[in-house]
Design goal:
Blueprint: H1 2-27, H2 37-57, H3 68-85, H4 92-114, H5 119-139, E1 149-150, E2 156-157, E3 161-162, H6 166-188, H7 191-201, H8 203-208, H9 213-239, E4 241-242, H10 249-262, H11 269-283, H12 290-305, H13 309-318, H14 325-334, H15 343-347
Antiparallel strand pairs: 1-4, 2-3
Helix pairs in contact: 2-6, 2-9, 2-10, 2-11, 3-4, 3-9, 4-5, 4-9, 6-9, 10-11, 10-13
């Protein structure tokens, strides 16, 4: 009984966080002098990007060095459609969907080539393929080359809501972010998410249970690419700009940094990491290139003293009153993703 009460207290603590953050996010446009809405929109776009990457590295165990390819490709497609057809009344949701589908298709092609490799070989293949996307973005005329795409119209949502208004754009971005967050949350707490954790922890054992490991990894890769594309398409509308930086290696490494700083394999970690990195880049912009050094030092300190990331250490602190090791081991054995992981049980 006491243990149940403690678990309820922890759950209430964790539930209070999203409710408070949602309330604060809704109030941001009303107090632009306190927190700049454009900065919050940038944080939400990159937080969604980090959530997509965390789905791959934190819950599937795959490290990609080419995730910026999905962010940028979706941005270019959405931007092109809005530039050419927004005046003709193209709904913005169609342009967003086209960007997401482009990122998902690109993720499928890259995944088919890389998914059969493990470890550093998988990472290097994704890096090489992302550099191909970067090269194409430089060479194609419709991307704008080094100048990028500028002046992308925001259009109208459902043909009614004018997104050229910053307040309308803010709430639209918030809605996209909440949708992406809830989707990721549902995925990792579904039977499919349990299978991904099983593949991460022991792929050989999952194979012995009858699961097609490469097929599930490919599906996770495509889902991650699609969510990254959603972040990139939204970012293109928010800033009305798509540049080569969106498909660069620097952006791919930044999302890795965000995920590790916040806490890999946690729901809130990528959001915390994205807030830290984007906030530092904004408020320390006067330092120029020294911002990279400052962020690097923070990363070193985090790795040294917060091995599980900010969110991971916070969760460990909240659960410090959990049962003794033997009882905890029994509980973890019950929740082991490898147990009761037969295809019949997950289908139920």
């Amino acid at each position: 009984m006491k243990q149940t009460m403690k678990q309820m207290k922890v759950s209430l603590k964790l539930l209070a966080v999203p409710l408070l953050l949602t309330l604060l996010a809704l109030l941001v446009p009303l107090f632009p002098g306190v927190l700049y809405p454009a900065l919050v929109m940038k944080v939400m776009c990159y937080a969604l990007f980090a959530l997509a990457f965390n789905l791959l590295i934190g819950y599937t165990g795959l490290v990609s060095f080419g995730h910026a390819a999905f962010l940028g490709a979706a941005g270019y497609v959405t931007g092109t459609l809005m530039l050419r057809f927004a005046a003709s009344g193209l709904p913005v949701e169609i342009a967003l969907l086209a960007g997401v589908l482009t990122a998902a298709g690109l993720g499928y092609l890259m995944g088919m080539l890389a998914i059969r490799r493990l470890g550093i070989y998988f990472a290097m293949i994704t890096l090489a393929l992302s550099q191909v996307v970067y090269f194409l973005a430089v060479q194609f005329k419709w991307t704008g080359g080094e100048d990028g795409m500028q002046g992308i119209p925001r259009g109208r949502l459902f043909g009614l809501i004018d997104l050229s208004s910053d307040s309308h754009m803010y709430y639209f971005t918030l809605g996209v972010f909440v949708f992406g967050f809830l989707l990721v949350y549902r995925i990792i707490h579904s039977p499919f998410g349990q299978i991904l954790k099983a593949l991460r922890d022991n792929s050989a054992r999952a194979t012995s249970l009858g699961y097609h490991v490469d097929r599930f990894k490919l599906l996770a890769f495509v889902l991650s690419a699609a969510l990254a594309g959603l972040a990139g398409a939204t970012k293109a509308l928010v800033f009305q700009l798509v540049s080569l930086n969106d498909v660069s290696l620097e952006t791919s490494t930044e999302v890795i940094l965000m995920t590790l700083l916040g806490g890999m394999g946690t729901v809130w970690g990528p959001i915390i990491g994205a807030t830290m990195v984007v906030g530092l880049q904004n408020y320390l912009a006067t330092l120029g290139d020294l911002v990279t050094i400052v962020i690097g030092l923070i990363f070193v300190l985090c790795v040294s003293f917060f091995r599980r990331g900010v969110a991971g250490e916070l969760l460990a602190w909240l659960k410090r009153d959990q049962p003794a090791p033997k009882a905890a081991a029994a509980e973890s054995e019950k929740s082991d993703p490898m147990i009761n992981l037969s295809p019949r049980s997950t289908e139920a």
